[in-house]
User: Fold this.
Amino acid sequence: MRYHRPTTLEDAVSIAATASGLTRFLAGGTDVLVQMRSGMIIPDDLIDLKGIAGLREITTTAEGGWRIGVTISGAELGSHAGFRRDWPGVVEGMQLIGSTQVQGRATLTGNLCNGSPAADSVPGLVAAGATVEITGPNGAREMPVEEIPVGPGKTSLKTGEIISAITLPPRGDNGGDAYLRFIPRTEMDIAVVGCAVSLRVDGRTITEARVALGAVAPTVLLVREAADAIVGTTLDDDALAALAKAAAAACRPISDKRGTVEFRTDLAGVLARRTARIAYDRAIGVSK
Amino acid sequence: MSKIHVTTIINGDMAEFLADPRETLLDCLRDHLGRTGSKEGCGTGDCGACSVTLDGVLVCSCLVLGVEVEGHRIETIEGMANGSELHPLQRKFIEHAALQCGFCTPGILVAAKALLERNPDPAEEEVRYWLAGNLCRCTGYTKIVDAVMDAAAEMRGAA
Amino acid sequence: MNMRVIDTKFRLVGTRPNRPDGLDKVTGRARYGADFSLPGMLWGAVVRSPHAHARILKIDASEALALDGVKAVVTRADFPTGLTGEDWNLQENTMAGDVALYDGHAVAAVAAASALLAQDAARRIKVEYEVLPHVIDVDDAIKPGAPAIRPGSGDHSVPPQEGVHPDMVRHNVVRNIEFGHGDVEEGFAQADLVMERTYKTEATHQGYIEPHACVGQMGEDGKGEMWVCTQGQWFIRRMCAAVLGTDAAQLRVTPSEIGGGFGGKTTIFMEPLALALSRKAGGRPVKIVMSRSEVLRATGPTASASMDVKIGMKKDGAMTAARAEFRMQGGAFPGAPVDLALYCAFAAYKIPAVEHVGYDVLANRPKCAAYRAPGAPMGAFAVESLIDDMCRELGLDPIEARLKNAVREGDKSSYGPTFGKIGLVETLEAVRKHPNYSAPLGPNQGRGVATGYWFNHGGETSVSLAISEDGTAQVSIGTPDIGGTRSSIGLMVAETLGIPYENVRVNVVETGALGVNEPTHGSRATFASGKAAVIAAQQAIGEMCKRAAGEWGIDPEAVEWYDGAARPAGSNAGKFPPMTIVEIARKMGSTGGPISGHHESVPDGVGNSFGTHVVDVEVDPETGRTTVLRYLVAQDAGRAIHPSYVEGQFQGGAAQGIGWALNEEYVYGSDGRLQNSVFLDYRVPVASDLPPIDTIIVEVPNPGHPYGVRGVGETGITPPLPAIANAIAAATGVRLRHLPMTPPKVLAAIKARADG
Assistant:
C-alpha cells in the first residue's frame, strides 16, 4: 500500500485520478482502518487529506449558511457553538456515531462517503438540504447531499473526485431540526432506523418540512409524503399519525442481524413522530 | 513495501520509529516503541482498550495509522503518572477495586482523564456515556464510575 | 449501596486493602498475553474455513512459502495420529483433519517475520473445499435426517447406530443422560397447578476484552516454553503435549496476567499451533495473537439450549414434582454442559419427585468452552421463569413461594448430594428486607426476582510457601489472578501467620514450580488455593515453633504461635519472651535450614453458593427497548475475605447476565457463517446501559474452609436471565421464552398481545 499525504487538493485529485488499483481517501479513518484491518479492503493507494490546508475549518457562507471542511471531526463539529445552535439535528446525527474516541476522528464526509444505508449523519444533512462541493479532475461542482450515496458502500463520485466541503443553507427564522435513531443498547450500535426532520413554523403552524429516513432502504430516503403530512398543521395527533403512516409506507427495509422488516417499519413511524416533535419544539422556541 | 520514518512526541519525549503504512498507531506503540500499556481488544474501535490522546483529543489508537502521527503529540497510559506519583484516577481505581482483570483499565483511565480535563464535575450519567466506548467485561462498571466520581471530587477539592 | 450481614472478628480477613498488582495494572506495566516478545520471534497467522461444514480436498501453501520472510506452514499432517477421546477432540479442534466443522475452524497456520507478513501469507494459502450440508440450531440438529457430524462421536449412553430402528437414529446426539428420584406422575397428579413450557437460549461468548495470545517455542527435541494468557497453565501444558505428541513435563508454561477468562481460557485453541510452527521453523519462538473476529468465531462460546420444563405446584406454593428435558449443542464436539445445567436446574428447591433428561447434540459450530457456571444460567432461565408464571397464576409472592420450597442444611438435593450449610434462605430474606424490593414503580416498569445456584469446585491444588530471611513470606500459587485473588490469598496467609498484609507476596507461578493445579475456574481459586495456602502457612508455623522450642530447650508441643511470634503455651512451659517470625527467620540457616510449608490435595469441604437477584426494568411499549433501572444481588459468600472483590464478582456476573438476557447472541446466516463476529454486532453491555449494581454479601460460613470461604465467581450469572424475563413480564404482561429478549422480539410480543 502506498501512503500519500498531499498538501493541496489539486495534488490529491491528481493522485487519485491517475492511480490504478484500489484507491481510498483517508480523513478520520474510522471506517477505512476497520476495513483494512479485516482484510476486506486493502487499498493500493491511500490518500491522506489531513495535510491539505483549509479543509479543517467551519465558516459561515455569504447567505448565512455554513461551510464545513471535510476533515472536521465530530468532536470539533459538536463544540462549535454557532453551528450547533443552527443545526442541532445535524450535530446530533454526527455525534451519535461510535464512541467518544471515534468522535475524536470521524468526519461528516467520511460518514457520507462510506455509503452505509444506516449512516447517522446523512439523514440530518438531507433533511437540512445540505449540498456538497466536489472537486475533480474536471473542476468543481455542487450537488445535493442525497445524490451522493447510490447503494450500500457506493457513491456517485467518479474516479479522482473528492468532496471538498459540505454546505448547509441558512437555518432561517423559526426553524428547528432533530435526529433520532433506534439502537438496542444506549450507545455503540449501528442505527436500526434513523430519522431526521427539519422544519420551519409560522406561529405554531409548520410552513415547510423535510423528513429523511435512514437504514430502511439502500440509501437515505427523503420522504415527501411524510413532510406533506405535517406541513400546514400544528403537529397535532392527527398530523403525527399521518406522519407515522407515511414514514412507514415509504420504508423498503431488509431483515438482518440488526432488525426485521416489520420492526424497522414500525420504528420508522415511531421515530418520525418523536423526531418531528423535537424539531417542532425547537422551532417554536420551547427547547433549544 | 518500504517503511516510513515517523518522528513524534510520546508522553513528552521525542520518539521515532519505522512504520509499515498499514500498521496502526497501536501496533507501533506496542511493537516498535515498547509501550504495551495500550491494548488491542477488538481492532475495530469498539472497545476503547487502545485509547490514547492525540494532540489532546481522546482517540482509539487502533483507528489511527502510525504514519499519521508524524509531528503530533501522543499521551498514553505510561505517561499518566507523574514519575512515581500516581494520578488521582489511578489511585482511586486501586482504592475502589475498580479493576478485576485490569485489561480495560489503561484505556478507561486515559478516557476518564480526558473527561475530567474537559468537565471537572460530571454527573454520573455523563461519565457513563463518555465511557460508553470503553468496554469492561469484569466489573459491570459500578466501581469504575464510583472511582471516577471520587477522583473528580478529590481533584476539585485540591484545585 | 453495599451491605454485609455478619461482621468479621478477624484482624485482616474482611478488610479492603489495595491489591498487590494494582500499581502495575493502573500504569500499564502489567504484562498480558500479547505483551511479551522474544529475540528472533516470528508471528503466526491461522487460515480458517469460511464454510460451516466442508471436506478439505487440498491445501496449497506454495505461494505463501515463496514469500520472503515466511518460515513455516503447518497443517494437520504435522500432528500425530491415533489420539482418542477428549485428546482427539482437542486435536481435531486445534486443526481440522479431513473435514472443516464450523465457520472459523483452523485448517492451516503460517509463521513469518512480521504480523502483517503472516496475514498476507495466510491469505495466499489456497484451500480447496467440497461444501457439505450443515446444521446450526440444536432442535434441527437433533432431528433424524439432519446432516451427520462426525459420526461415531457419541459415548456409551447413546445407542450405536446399527441395530436401532431408523426412526430413532438421531445422528448428532453424542450423550444422553437421565436421572431423578420419586414418582413425578404421582406428584403432578397431586398438584393444584401443573404448567409445562419450552424455553430457548442462544449461544453467547464470555466476551473477555483480551483476545487469546501466546508466544510458544519448541525445539526438535520436544522441549518447549510458552507464555500465554490462561486460566490454567497446567491444562494448557497437558493439552498441548497431548495434541502434539510430546511429554508434558518437557513443556513449561508460564501464565501472563490475564485479561478476563470466565471459563473461555481454561482450554487450548491456537496454542499448539505456535509450538508446532516453532518446531518447524527451527525452534524460533512464534507469537500468535487472535483478532476479535477469530475469538468470536473460533474459540469457545457457550452452548445454546432448547428446554422443556414441567412443574406441579400446590395452591400454597409447595412444589410437588418437576421434570426437565434439556437439549444443548456445544458445537461439533461433545461437551455441551447439559449435565451441569440439569444438576442445577431444581437445586434450589426441595421437590419430592424430579426427573431430568438431557441430550448433548452436535452442530456445525465452534467447540464450546465453559462460561461462568456452564449450563446453569440456561436452566435457571427456564425453571425460574416457569415458577414466576406459576406464582402469578396462583397469586403468590415470588419470594414467599421460593422460601416455601427452599433447600436448607440437611436437605437432599435434586441431583443427589445432601446439602451442608447453605445460605439460600438468607439471600431471599436479605432481598426481601432491602429498599430496592419496595421501591415504587412507574408506568411500563416491572420487577423480577430469581434465584440461582452453583456448586463450586475443589480440584487439584498445589501451593508452596516460604519464609524469607527477613521474616516476610512468599506464597507460590498455581491459580492465575483474574479478579483479585492475590489479595485474598495474601490476607488469609497474613492473618494465619499474624504478620502485616504487606509482608506477604503472592506469586502466580509457572508449571515447573509446583505440582499440578487446576485452573482458576469453578470459583475455586480463593477456596482451594486459599485453603492450601493456609495449611501451608500452618505447616511453616509448626516448623517455626519447633525452632523456638529448640532454642528454649522445651518440647515443640509446648510452643504456640500468636500474633506473629512463637511463645510458650501456658506458664508451665517456661518463661521465655515471644520469638518473632523476624527473629526466627534471621537465624533459620543455622537452626535447621530454610523454612517452608506446602500442601497438595483435591480439597473437600467445597461450599455451594446460592444467590437471589431483584431487577427493575422499564420497557418502551412502542419500541420494545428494555432499560434496567435497578439491580440488586444478594449472594452467599461464606466469608468475604476481601469484600470489594466479592462485590466485584457479584456485579460482573450480573452485567454478563444482563447482556445475555437482552442483546447477546450468535447470529448465523443460512450459509452457516457467523454474522456478528465483532463487538459492533455482538452487543455486550456498555457503561451507559447499566445502572449501579447494588450488592448484599450474605455470609453463612462454609465449615469446609478455615476462613469459611465459598466460591462466588459463578453463581452471579445464574439469576439474571430469568430475573430480567420476569421483570419484563411484569412490566408488559408478556412472557418471553426465547433469549435474547431483543427489542424486535419484545415489540412483536407486545403487539401480539394487543391484537388479542
Notes: The interface with chain A takes residues 119, 123, 291, 293, 622-625, 662-663, 667, 675-676, 679-681, 683, 685-686, 688-689, 742-744, 747-748, 751 of chain C (CB under 8 Å). The first strand of chain C starts at residue 2 and ends at 4. Confidence is low (pLDDT under 50) at residues 1-7 of chain C.
